[in-house]
Design goal:
By secondary structure, the protein is of the alpha/beta class. The protein is 28% helix and 21% strand. The chain is globular. Bound molecules: S-adenosylmethionine.
């Protein structure tokens, strides 16, 4: 078995980034899935004056929309892959003339979910197509670290691949729509809702499966909320 946790441990070369391959590396459907992230957050009440942390922000597929929507300086991104952060800033942010809305220090290279390194608290958090690539204990670590850096009643929107009640979790599953094959023990992972509830059982988070499910590759939208 490979020692990598997921494919994102590989840095893209400068040549790959100049060819725009970073967009496919994070899953493609650049415009549609980027915009989808903003749409879901707007529905949940994201306002320009709020601070948002995008965990596993990659090369800012959703970030470019969020940087435009939020007041300057209110978007924060964290990712374990430095080359994707660089591609996001030097290509995607720059060509859209958005540098004045995103201080480079708001993008952090970190693989241990140390969101406290920003030194601020967040009203909103996002993890889009991140849990699909993480073992369950990493998801729990992410939730524990994040809870300490959210304001009271903070909201955390995430996506994951579900092993629904009628599915044997030990077997692979072909997700619909999209046809992605997911696994109990390798990337891309699927989980039961009860697995995610286990992650927060000793945490201040409340978890709900959202009603509006429109991910084109069958990922499920979930919302973690803090009571106070
Ligand atoms: C499918 S990409 C999604 C990127 C972005 N959210 C988007 O929608 O385009 C998954 C991202 O998670 C990042 N990632 C994987 N493990 C991570 C970790 N432990 N901490 C932070 N980021 C991680 C990868 O580097 C990659 O950028």
């Amino acid at each position: 078995m490979a020692s990598e946790i997921n494919q994102y441990e590989r840095d893209l070369s400068g040549e790959e980034i100049s060819k725009g391959l970073h967009r496919a590396f994070v899953g493609g459907m650049w415009d549609e899935i980027g915009r989808l992230q903003l749409d879901h957050l707007l529905r949940l009440g994201l306002k320009p004056h709020m601070r948002l942390i995008d965990i596993g922000c990659g090369c800012l597929r959703g970030g470019i929309h969020l940087v435009r929507h939020l007041d300057p300086g209110n978007y924060f991104g964290l990712d374990s892959n430095r080359s994707l952060l660089d591609a996001g800033y030097s290509q995607e942010i720059t060509v859209r003339n958005l540098r004045n809305r995103l201080p480079k220090s708001n993008l952090l290279h970190d693989k241990n979910f140390r969101v406290d390194r920003f030194g601020v608290n967040f009203e909103f958090a996002l993890a889009f197509s991140l849990f699909t690539h993480l073992p369950l204990n990493h998801i729990k670590l992410c939730l524990v670290k994040l809870a300490a850096c959210m304001v009271p009643r903070g909201k955390f929107l995430a996506t994951f691949f579900e092993s629904p009640p009628n599915h044997d979790w030990t077997r692979s599953r072909t997700q619909n729509p999209g046809g992605v094959v997911t696994w109990p023990d390798q990337d891309p992972y699927h989980y039961k809702m009860s697995d995610l509830n286990w992650c927060i059982q000793d945490q201040p988070w409340r978890l709900e499966r959202l009603e509006n499910q429109d991910h084109p590759r069958g990922q499920i939208f979930i919302l973690f909320s803090l009571a106070s």
